Amino acid sequence: MLRQSLSKICRKTKLQRLGCCFSNYAQKNPAMKFDDEFRTTINQEGKLLPNSDHSFIADHDDKFGLQHIRDPAKILTHLKSVEFKYSLNDLIYFLRHLVHISEEHGLRSQIMNNYNFREFLNHIKKCLLTNQHDKFPLIGSYAYCLNKLDINDREMWRLLEYKILEDQYHTTFDESVFAAQGFCKLPLMYYGQSEETIQARIDKVYKKLERVIRITIWEVNPVHYHSIAMALAKVNRFDPQMFAKLEQHILTNLSLNYTTKMMIDILFCFAKGKQGSLEFYDSMQYVIFKGHMFNRNYFLQSLSELSYDGHLVARLLGIYKEAQDKYHEFQLHPDFQSKVHNLMVNKLTFYDLESLVTTMTLLPTFLKDDVKNIQNSLINRITQIPGQFQIQDIIKFYEFVEKNYDDIKNAPIQQMHFVEDNLYKYSDSVSMDDLIIVLQYLYERPKFILQPDKFINQVIKTFDQNINLMTAAQIDMLTSLFQPFLEFQQKQIGDSLNIKSTLKKLKDIQLIKQYYQKYLHQLYNYGYKIAQIQFYQCHLTIIKMKKKFIIISLEGNIGAGKSTLFEILKEEYPQAIFLMEPLEQWQKINGNSNLNILEKYYSDARQVGVYFLNLRLLIQINGLGQIIAIVLVFTERSIESARELFFQLCCNDGKISQIEFEIYEEFYQWLMNHYQQYLIDCVIYVNTPPEVCLERLIKRGRSEEACVPLDYLRKLHQRHEDWLSEKSNRFLTIKIDATLNYVQDQKVKESVRQLLLSEIQKLKELLN
């Protein structure tokens, strides 16, 4: 009672003093009126914001009084209006606040889609590239903020990396910790290179940062310890001196207000790098089962128990397995074992398949008694796990069953059925690579295939849906792997599961492969990987057939207005099929947002031109190959225009090598000779001046098109004119003047509509 009364008096006195100080400060310091000044100034275009330079603002890291602004567009519009004329070290205040808005209010997409934000990033890159910055720029803060916003601009990150390597950054403790957290993004920026090369680049940067962190005085703050440990573990940096210093600070400051989860995260980083002393692991046991080493300290906030999280259980078991492997004399404390055991078997503890299998696998290293009963209890939870299982977790589950159950009759059949059903149920959302891996894994272990009919159907489905995207290596593996299996099953159950059809497709693949076999040796000599050659990967959708549909292609420059015209056609022909260009597929190859081939094509056609054109060809054939009814088909660009326009432009500009040219040409001619059902019957040419196209590109603000110059649009426009004026063309051409406003002007729209209806009707009568 005495303590509570004393505490209330202290708090009351402290608040009164703070109120007096705050009141006096407001009277003496004009910074208190700064927010009103800011709201007035930010609406005045072209005027820089005032710099308070008062301690009240500085203490809140808000040099320009941004704390009340919740709309990122206001900040970005202001920066654009003053042409980003702040110093680079001042611009970081705006970027930090954008990060704050993104995290607190979930407005990241609004920020990323703002054209002024892209301009902001380009200005930052320009400053870094031309050294238009302070002597010691805040590179750490920039790396931290850009990582938080998930910016994957390789040029930006390489410029930041260069500044670190050249010691052109603010070498304080805080900035170095920010940099360590931010540069965790670096491995993604070198995606596609060998692991050794990527790690070597990471090591160069982090050696610089770690040196600064080691020799500077550390603030006594568990959050810093946590940030440093997590950042280093993410990039596989486990310098013994750095972790020894971390351990020293942690063990000597266990009276601080840390959370148990924070300490477990730090402990995991130590275990991952095989760092830490016996005393450290022993002390952490007490931290975990007590909740806090000094939890009787009245002034520390109360700490919650460990969360009911299966990943937490699995992580603890993994940590202390490493501790026992490293220190054979290490002993687990009974209270610690009891706490983890209770958490492990508690019905409230939620497991997914990964954490459940990991826990069951590591259990014998943590407990010696009743292991089998606990494992059986845990494995029964599998049928309660909702949602889709990851492929790697499914394989780990089967590995656990294989290791722990010699006789399949004693295995958990119900749980195995559940896992197998989950695989087939969610197969459409699994990447092709992962699906092939797990099918191969099961094929090699037939005792795990409890439902052979579903397995065969899944094999057939995998071929039918993914064959167009498979690499040569995957085709080789699948044909050699599954053809004997399917032939065997055909003898057993006949053709009821379309096995015969799948076998025919497999043989067709082998034939088309032989056609290209003569080129493979040449391509090897030029340093290509077979997996990158997509010429014969599209074969399964190329099935010889009589012409059953009319193909009308909308052609025009980038930004000509093709999509708008598509909407008019959709209104008139609701039964037709419309094949739009797959922007999202180009922007995310195999679902990976870091692999944007469209952006790369516009910025560096010399490097990826032929691959982009092959991908375009592949997707167009795939779309047409799915059409089996007698229909009218509208496509956004065509197989012919891909060659006549983009391929020819790359050739004219010297961005395609001779061997690439010859192979593409021969394949194109072979395709046109053998599969004439894919030739276009009509072109609707959306004729738009290049200058108008450029205005539209700027207005719609796609990041990939930001680097498209007017000169390129002029060349592409001329290629359209040359191609469509050739007398040898066997298709009808309908020219639409896109400078006319057929979006808002109803008379113009009706005129365009009547022209299209009339010409398309003539075409249908002619072809019929």
UniProtKB/TrEMBL annotation:
| Deoxynucleoside kinase domain segment(s) | 552-753
Q: What GO CC annotations are associated with the protein? A: cytoplasm
Q: Which Gene3D superfamilies match?
A: P-loop containing nucleotide triphosphate hydrolases (3.40.50.300)
Q: Which Pfam families match?
A: dNK (PF01712)
Entry superkingdom: Eukaryota
Molecular functions per Gene Ontology: deoxynucleoside kinase activity
- Designated name of the protein: Deoxynucleoside kinase domain-containing protein
